[in-house]
Amino acid sequence: MSVDVEKLCSAAAAVRFDIQSLPEEARNHALMHAAELLESSADDILSANETDLSAARENGMSKGMLDRLTLTKDRIRQMADGIRVVVSLPDPLGEVLDEFDRPSGIHIKKVRVPLGVIGIIYESRPNVTADAFALTFKTGNCVVLKGGSDALYSNIAITAVLRKALSDCGIPEDAVVLIPSADREDTARFMQMREYIDVLIPRGSAGLIRAVVENSRIPVIETGSGNCHIYVDKDADIDMAVRIILNAKTQRIGVCNAAESLVVHREIEEKFLPVLAKAMKDAGVLLYADEESIAFLPGSEAATEEDFAREYLDLKMSVKVVGSTEEAIAHINRYHTRHSDCIITENRDAAALFLEKIDSACVYWNASTRFTDGFEFGFGAEIGISTQMLHARGPMGLKELTGYKYLIEGTGQVRA
Amino acid sequence: MSVDVEKLCSAAAAVRFDIQSLPEEARNHALMHAAELLESSADDILSANETDLSAARENGMSKGMLDRLTLTKDRIRQMADGIRVVVSLPDPLGEVLDEFDRPSGIHIKKVRVPLGVIGIIYESRPNVTADAFALTFKTGNCVVLKGGSDALYSNIAITAVLRKALSDCGIPEDAVVLIPSADREDTARFMQMREYIDVLIPRGSAGLIRAVVENSRIPVIETGSGNCHIYVDKDADIDMAVRIILNAKTQRIGVCNAAESLVVHREIEEKFLPVLAKAMKDAGVLLYADEESIAFLPGSEAATEEDFAREYLDLKMSVKVVGSTEEAIAHINRYHTRHSDCIITENRDAAALFLEKIDSACVYWNASTRFTDGFEFGFGAEIGISTQMLHARGPMGLKELTGYKYLIEGTGQVRA
User: Fold this and answer.
1) Which of A21, A106, A408 sits opposite B356 (nearest CB)?
2) Contact list, B194 vs chain A (CB under 8 Å)
3) For chain A, N or C: smaller number of CB within 10 Å?
4) How many domains, chain B?
5) Which of B99, B215, B406, B411 is the best mutation test for A, with the most CBs of A within 10 A?
6) Range of the domain at B257
7) Are residues B50 and B183 in the same domain?
8) Are residues A66 and A82 in the same domain?
9) Domain check: are A18 and A154 in the same one?
């Protein structure tokens, strides 16, 4: 299948001013219609999904991946409900972020506006198609989607429904555009479309994100990669430590806010590590222990330098012993991915030092790293977790899909 | 001169946590000392500057460029005073941007923090070296500087003084690092240092900025390029229009917020264009007029399509006639650089439409585009004017050199 990537991107860019100007009511109305149309088009979507599934089965896709790719009536209803939740969220557009007069006589107003055209590159799960559309359209943006090749026909069917919903409402359907291609060259071309796309958000594996960061000429918001650390201080409550580690490591292992690395203060190792060893064994977690901790952790394996930097996304975790909070901080700032890190301690000074010095989007004191999430933060939605510094950091909700502009009013002022 | 770019960048990155933790007083004290040391080291700096100047004269550098490169005792005093002004500005660090409790029991605080390590690539003027250091250090950042090859020895001398000032104050001198190279390959290598540099800000010509945008793997804040438009609506006050256009076009021609393009409503062309023609002739401005306006503009030249997109940075301006505010908006959104655009009108509805629909960092109603400036906006300083959407838009002051992180406090909460 050969597609004209530039034509598709420019089509979205061409209607962005129309989309930016839609009143909140029109955006919400179109989203509600899209939700309904997804449900009433379930048969078409499921039949397209079956095309993807049979190809995937032929290619020997793993059971877990097949499950992620599979749509059902129930999952389509969840997609539609997800859109309805986005409709119910407050509109961030038009918010006055700042407003002031200047001695020159001009009046300056800083207002929240859409980013423009957002590009999203993602992997197998076809529900991202509807999800990304809802979040970007709610915030007055156009979106150009490049989904995984495995979900190509599912994504084509879902996008067709979304576009029909817009056109039913008299809104330009190019507000959502899919690049309907399984060709990697097309993805590479997409990443060069700086003229049409204001920001590119990759959603998926560390490999996908790295490829986008390395090859995109469009500004990227780096998301997702999480080597989250938990530091058990000498003054930690041991029961609390075990409870938080179990939750952060095992509640859901394939997610970016799961804990991957443990750092333990030397003064608590004797009391804490045996308790940890038992809890981890019961939970089926394999520990990669450094030279000092391995004696206290029967059944663990010796950690290599690489283990400290690893995002396992599995029932595995590295363990490192340190002599002080300062040493813990230096170790974490060296190996983490600036996503989420946690200190467990009853000592207020140690906590304050950790919160100040750890350079992550989210720094926790006595709570699980699993809370790094747009819903848990109360944003009502989430397009991803940013692990970079610019623009947005941590969970990205609706506000993070907007920018601002300055409106300046005068009465003929000129610069002296 | 061969330099190890990676080593220089990693040196700055290695001390960033020390710099982030400096209290406001320590940062301000070091900056005051740097200002004094610049003045007392004037002879060394001037002698290094003379090395650059004689090489530049030999290479036949233009008079204007030579002037930009030249330092004097007075200009060094201005540099020092510039640093003192930055000291006097309020510290943006530590500001609590948001704070809230969640039903899960966790408490979330969003606080302003330094970006980390900022890279700056700039051209001839050596005063940028001191200026960029002051702004980045005040905000708790480290900075890696790559100046123009013409100012190499001046920049080396200035950076040596800044580093000495830091070390006198017991602060790691690698908070400011210069890449002391005139080799373009080193600039190319610098742009790949994503591991050490959090954001790259190019300051200089459109060509420099384009090269950085196209080649950097570090997130870039695009600055500077300004094809600013002024639209004279049918309901404009003609005297005001001429006054604003003269100011925006001629008050300083080499700057990014100067007006380059004029758009005129057809219903006012007969009354307005002859007045404009005279004023522009008196000011020595050459107009590039479209087919319709050329009849009213004696002495003008015929505009080509390219003229509408041109940033002249000269006593030149394009003129385009339109039939409506909507047409003006479409024309401007097509040809501008999203920097600053202005409508001149007494008509509130036309102004509202223009302010809403023009997609620029700064949109003006009855005021000169020359006000797009960190000082005129009251930021007290300016590192550049962003023309991109992500992170910061328009004038960038101290706050725009910061990001945020979330601090989350719990009492043992885990995710359900």
Assistant:
1) A21
2) 213
3) C
4) 2
5) B406
6) 228-371
7) yes
8) yes
9) yes
